[in-house]
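Help: read this over?
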Amino acid sequence: MAAGEGGEAWAGIVSVRRSGGFAGRVTDGELDLTTDPAGAEAAALLRRIDLSRIPKTAPQPDRFVYAIRIGDHELRVHEQDLTPELRRLVELVLDPTA
């Protein structure tokens, strides 16, 4: 099932691993949708994201790749394929002050 389909309610942990880029650094983060202060915003974003409709283009040099896990769903998204909602979700998980 795709996120957002039928208003699916998400719960649990969202984890993001960003890798690649010019320096090749890896950054990891997690956000608990229930207890984290940004959890409500993240859950609202997830209700608007249809995971089955995320574009899948070829990787580009010096750009990031994101491994995103939401409950039982896991996807790999190249930086250029992030939707505005997915980009904001990644920001919330990797930089809690964003």
